[in-house]
Amino acid sequence: MGAFLVRDSLFLLLLGASLTLAHNLNCQKSLTVRLGRDLSNTFNWTAEEVETCDNGALCQESILIITAGTRTVALGSKGCVFAETESVTFIQHSAPPSLVAVSYSNYCDNLLCNNREAIAQFGNLQLFSGSSVSTAFRCPTCLALGSCSSAPYLPCVNGTSRCYQGKLNITGGDMNVSVEIKGCTDMKDCRLMGRITTVGPMLIKETCSLQSFPKPRVAENGAAWPPISALGSGPLLPSPLLLLSLVPFS
Ligand SMILES: *[C@@H]1O[C@H](CO)[C@@H](O)[C@H](O)[C@H]1NC(C)=O
Ligand SMILES: *[C@@H]1O[C@H](CO)[C@@H](O)[C@H](O)[C@H]1NC(C)=O
Ligand SMILES: *[C@@H]1O[C@H](CO)[C@@H](O)[C@H](O)[C@H]1NC(C)=O
Ligand SMILES: *[C@@H]1O[C@H](CO)[C@@H](O)[C@H](O)[C@H]1NC(C)=O
To answer: Among 97, 114, 179, 218, who pairs with 61 as Cys (CB 3.0-4.6 Å)?
Structure first.
């Protein structure tokens, strides 16, 4: 009889402990605003801070990565989030060649589960944008937090047909930054982000313009360049390319 009572109270104790765990989750907490070269390979996303969530919240880690020219910007948020379900989302908003935008978001329900360190698995962005084959066309190219201080005319890679100029305002998940982006692109609609306007808790507002390359002209060596329509028929991927998976990336 005595043993039975002990086992019952032990069971209640364990139940209480697991309820506490389920409702007051500890998550990594950080805000990342980084601009640089080769970020994908060198960047360590591990957060030093830990946050205790309110009842019913999950852990989240979300990041938006944009590459233009040789520069990459990474905007990331880790912390608690109110969400119903666990999920992992990877989206390629804009495909190579040239301007690339990808995002990753992970909502999870275990102690410190928002613990991704590396972002290299999201694609070698430098490889996408650093193609050596170039067209005769050039676009102002830059990537900056806030506004670009300069935007040199850089050669466009084969497969691009327009110059993109845009601004993204990113708010939410403790983020409030603006990014300016200019470069060559093959996008037909002015949508670096595709139709997606959120990355985890971050809300993204895009304002932009697109300009077609000038009409075909005769080059200095006398050879006529292919018409614009031919240039535009490069590898066009459906944009946005949406990959949704419940299995975390390894
Ligand atoms: C990232 O940083 C964390 C904490 O500082 C460290 O434990 C981990 O080994 C680092 N990862 C890499 C790949 O450098
Ligand atoms: C984006 O942010 C900038 C600077 O804070 C502001 O001037 C601009 O109006 C914002 N644009 C949108 C679409 O919210
Ligand atoms: C973001 O920052 C701008 C100033 O840079 C400010 O006007 C705006 O209210 C801020 N937005 C939020 C949501 O904090
Ligand atoms: C560039 O693209 C055009 C048309 O898309 C193609 O005909 C041409 O061979 C390409 N040039 C190179 C060097 O790949």
So the answer is: 114
Residue 241 lies in a domain: no
Sorting pLDDT into bands at 50, 70 and 90, what band is 213? confident
Range of 126's domain?
26-233
What would the two tokens of residue 187 be?
């996008």
The ligand with the least distance to the CA atom of 167 is 2
Residue whose CA lies nearest to ligand 4 atom number 13: 133
Q: Is residue 170 part of a domain?
A: yes
Instruction: From 171, 176, 205, give the residue whose CB has the most ligand 3 atoms within 8 Å, as the site to mutate.
Output: 176
3-class DSSP state of 144: strand
Q: Considering only 55-69, 108-122, 228-242, which range has the smallest mean pLDDT?
A: 228-242
Residue from 44, 45, 114 to probe ligand 1 pocket by mutation (most atoms less than 8 Å from CB): 44
Residue 18 lies in a domain: no
Q: Inform me whether the pLDDT recorded for 57 exceeds 60.
A: yes
Among 19-28, 32-41, 74-83, which is the least confidently predicted range?
19-28
Prediction pTM value: 0.78
In a domain, 95, yes or no: yes
Distance CA 11, CA 9 (A): 5
For 139, residues 6+ apart whose C-beta sits below 8 A from its C-beta are 153, 154, 156, 160, 162, 163, 164, 182, 183, 184
Give yes or no for residue 176 CB within 6 A of ligand 3: yes
